[in-house]
Protein 1
Amino acid sequence: SQQGEEDPQALSIQEGENATMNCSYKTSINNLQWYRQNSGRGLVHLILIRSNEREKHSGRLRVTLDTSKKSSSLLITASRAADTASYFCATVPENSGGSNYKLTFGKGTLLTVNP
Amino acid sequence: GAGVSQTPSNKVTEKGKYVELRCDPISGHTALYWYRQSLGQGPEFLIYFQGTGAADDSGLPNDRFFAVRPEGSVSTLKIQRTERGDSAVYLCASSKTGVGGYTFGSGTRLTVV
């Protein structure tokens, strides 16, 4: 079953613009991760934010987490054509019964950055 | 190796046949995971290995699916009596511990005709 839901399902922007994708989830989490996938194949881990963190930065990426709203956002600044990909959020449940390893993914946001 | 390697990258098989999908994780990564991704969906968990043992196989859809990791490194996902609904990209990932960012392979695209 899918825990996360990304919004929007698809996003098309011009190079240089910022892209914001949102993720909502249902149950308490240990951490939330964002992944990128090109052409429906391997996923690349972008960033991990723990439940006690509110914001993290990595290069042009900024992730926020609001556990009270059970939501996260991924901001890509100054987008490039090479950022075109699908972006997924994935949650790891709060430690319960040792199942804190299992990623539950959303359906993803397809980002298209036009040159 | 430098990354997670999955072979074959593509596999076409006839309905009812048996297939094996291989995953070679990053050296030293004790945790290994298999996920399945259907078209237009996010990956879904199948099975998790810690070392040689399957710590959680709750995501395997039925008893036609089985996975092994006999020496704690390479893993093989085995599907018996394949059905058209098994068509998907099968992704393998590994990590140093059971928690944290995972490194995924490029996946095996399985097509059952």
Protein 2
Amino acid sequence: DQQVKQNSPSLSVQEGRISILNCDYTNSMFDYFLWYKKYPAEGPTFLISISSIKDKNEDGRFTVFLNKSAKHLSLHIVPSQPGDSAVYFCAASARNGNEKLTFGTGTRLTIIP
Amino acid sequence: DVKVTQSSRYLVKRTGEKVFLECVQDMDHENMFWYRQDPGLGLRLIYFSYDVKMKEKGDIPEGYSVSREKKERFSLILESASTNQTSMYLCASSHDFYEQYFGPGTRLTVT
């Protein structure tokens, strides 16, 4: 039972363009969402997060949007750079539960120079 | 900077062997986690610990056990390794349950 889904296993984007990574969830108790980035042979690193009381959070080139009614979040990277090529995981947590993170399956983003 | 280290980057073991994976963090974090990462399945939580000598089962604890005798160290134990435990194992720590800091991972192959 995959409660957090990333339906696109891979995505290729031209350098300088916008990258949009999508994530859907099914558990209505989730109220905090995070994005992690993972390079090969390294552990994931935290990128950006959003609480369910917001619908948008921005940090430099990275913006996360949350649509609670659709149970959907997206990560926008603009402009995309070659160093953004990595696997991106979204994760969700229910703060009223045991608060562990549930991760999606990941999307491999490739930025084409 | 938070540093999470794992004892081995690559490990090859035989079926039936007992395997220990060690994880150490240097930021005095209360919470520590063990995940495995498999293609198409993402990161799945095996066990976590929110205090010394405390442990909680994650989503896939079967075939694994853990030990946390000191705050900075969290060990994952495979009592009798099997080929379906071939995977990338990731340790993480956090002050709260949200922003977790990961180690580089141990790629375990069981033959």
